[in-house]
Amino acid sequence: MCGPTLFMAGERWRYFLAPSRSSLFRVLHNSCCRKKSTTPKKITPNVTFCDENAKEPENALDKLFSSEQQASILHVLNTASTKELEAFRFLRGRRSINIVKHRENFGPFQNLESLMNVHLFKYKSTVEVCNSILHPETRGEKRKLPENRFLRKFLKPDIERERLKAVNSIISIVFGTRRIAWAHLDRKLTVLDWQQSDRWSLMKGTSYSSSVYLEEISSIISKMPKADFYVLEKTGLSIQNSSLFPILLHFHIMEAMLYALLNKTFAQDGQHQVLSMNRNAVGKHFELMVGDSRTSGKELVKQFLSDSVLKADPRVFFPSDKIVHYRQMFLSTELQRVEELYDSLLQAVAFYELAVFEP
């Protein structure tokens, strides 16, 4: 195992610990086997899961559930709002949106089979959805304690699950030594705003003047829209080398300033609006980790931009009136990798997928 090495990536200091061959293979193996099965543990009797693309006999779904169960499922599908549908397992994100849109365009669902006419629904996924509506609490109660422990591993401070589930928009903020970037996303993973600022002078000199930090950060915050939560990247940089002290001090001052300036109502209600999200947790979510080092997310962000134009149901949606601007902004970083810009978007997506949508 090689010793730790300090290197600069996109003007941001990082520790790199070169892994041995055995540890590298172990990391790659764990990465491949990391995803959990989404098959529910409890289903209604006689429900069997088959190949997603296999053709089922006519009225196959109606034969799996009693008339009372069908009535309960259809009542939810025909009356619940998008947010209410997202409370059920397998109905998070685009699926709940597609159900409401289909209902508005074609009227209420007449039977369970008609749910398969909705985009993203086939036989297997429709069975899973029906079961999640019939058993909304069974799996949730079993997962409640482990789920809270899971959140604590990458999100600080502790936030009630209900507040996370009710989020409508967040601003993800990532800062380095010379720039700061932020991404504003709603719960549909639509990019409402995405910016960076690299015209600050906080690391010029060693005075660390509080007034200068206050002026610079206040100016940046004034450009940010309001959101339910402001999520800061937590690098986990440890001071193993005295030469890193100036950078570590800068990070701590930045974090403290952002917590103080963005938690505007904390004194009144004691509710945190600013959270810190572990950088490596985001890297693991997108499989960007190699050993203890996180690789660049540039290509992944580039793919998000491309998919938003080419795919009908992209993972991240960039509005048509802003996509050209965002693409130009991204292309302007080709020569100098602006990791803060890429990371702010990836962190926002990971926050929703890990903390908000995860059942």
From TrEMBL:
Transmembrane segments: none annotated. GO terms for molecular function: DNA polymerase processivity factor activity; nucleic acid binding. It holds the Pfam family HHH_3. The keyword Transferase does not apply. It is found in: Mitochondrion matrix, Mitochondrion nucleoid. It comes from the Eukaryota. GO terms for biological process: transcription elongation by mitochondrial RNA polymerase. InterPro entries: RNaseH-like_sf, RNaseH_sf, RuvA_2-like, TEFM. Signal peptide: none annotated. Keywords: Mitochondrion, Mitochondrion nucleoid, Transcription, Transcription regulation, Transit peptide. GO terms for cellular component: mitochondrial nucleoid. Interacts with POLRMT. Belongs to the TEFM family. Transcription elongation factor which increases mitochondrial RNA polymerase processivity. Regulates transcription of the mitochondrial genome, including genes important for the oxidative phosphorylation machinery. This is Transcription elongation factor, mitochondrial. It comes from Piliocolobus tephrosceles (Ugandan red Colobus).
